[in-house]
Design brief:
Elements (H helix, E strand, L loop, with lengths): L3 H19 L18 H20 L1 H11 L3 H9 L7 H20 L16 H23 L9 H10 L3 H5 L10 E5 L5 E4 L7 E5 H8 L11 E3 L1 H9 L22
Parallel strand pairs: 1-3
Antiparallel strand pairs: 1-2, 3-4
Helix pairs in contact: 1-5, 1-6, 2-3, 2-4, 2-5, 2-6, 6-7, 7-9
């Protein structure tokens, strides 16, 4: 895994990429529905703003974070939806400014965590670099929803490696979401980066592998494309099953996306 400094630099770059997607939109366009049922573009930006604020609080003010987490312990999704209401009446450009400000504050707070110290999070404390990778995962998934709503195509970069490595750490989330027992044998991911480099993530002696373009892999683990629309392949029965259930986030899987839902499924 990359250093915290490098990961935070890429987190900032991803944050700004999403900001540029929406910066020139007029107010009605912010209410454009996205592929996530019931979520507009404004909702997506509000969600990311809230996640930045939550991570900033966890890193900089653990006691306040603990009280927030305790209140959300039994219904995190409900707590998130309730938190989003605070953004309902904010004009788009103010919301965008809040998104950028909270993103920057999150980066500074994670950078200030003393070396070797964990950051409290919703289930288990995490190293700040892993929490930064989780932020990159959130930006990728919700950013894809925004891009899809606008008919825009984001250019993949090698910053995707952070998400690919995070997906290795969170491989079992898809099993947990469905009450399934995860296989004891780890997988290896062999992914072709946007630059053409081959990323090998996981044990060299793993007999079960997932292979294909890193961008497709990231679309899969954020459930923004159906596996049928992606150029991914698996070696091993468990790895093949995993392609049907993969998700790099905790909690309910959500509806995912249907095969052929997008005209340009490689976008």
């Amino acid at each position: 895994m990359a250093t915290l400094q490098d990961t935070l630099k890429d987190l900032s770059a991803d944050t700004e990429e999403i900001a540029r997607l929406v910066a020139s939109l007029d107010a009605p366009a912010w209410q454009t529905p996205t592929p996530a049922p019931g979520w507009t573009i404004a909702d997506q930006i509000a969600h990311l703003t809230f996640i930045f604020r939550l991570a900033k609080t966890a890193a900089a003010d653990p006691q306040t974070f603990a009280s927030i987490a305790a209140g959300a312990a039994h219904d995190f999704n409900g707590a998130v939806n309730a938190a989003l209401q605070q953004f309902n009446d904010i004009p788009p450009q103010q919301l965008l400014a809040a998104y950028r400000a909270e993103g920057e504050a999150c980066v500074h707070a994670l950078a200030a965590v003393p070396e070797g110290q964990l950051v409290p999070w919703l289930v288990n404390p995490l190293p700040p670099v892993v929490l930064a990778c989780a932020g990159i995962m959130e930006l990728f998934g919700h950013g894809q929803d925004i891009a899809d709503a606008l008919g825009a195509r984001r250019e993949p970069t090698d910053r995707l490696r952070h998400l690919a490595e995070f997906a290795f750490l969170t491989r079992d989330f898809g099993y947990q979401a469905r009450g399934m027992t995860a296989p004891s044998e780890p997988f290896r991911f062999e992914l072709t980066a946007p630059s053409g480099e081959i990323w090998r993530i996981g044990p060299d002696d793993a007999t079960q592998t997932v292979s294909g373009p890193a961008h497709d892999f990231c679309l899969l683990v954020t459930r923004r494309r159906h596996r049928d629309d992606l150029a991914l392949s698996a070696t091993g029965r468990d790895a093949d099953q995993w392609l049907d259930i993969a998700q790099a986030y905790r909690g309910p899987a959500g509806e995912g996306r249907m095969p052929g839902q997008f005209a340009d499924h490689r976008a």
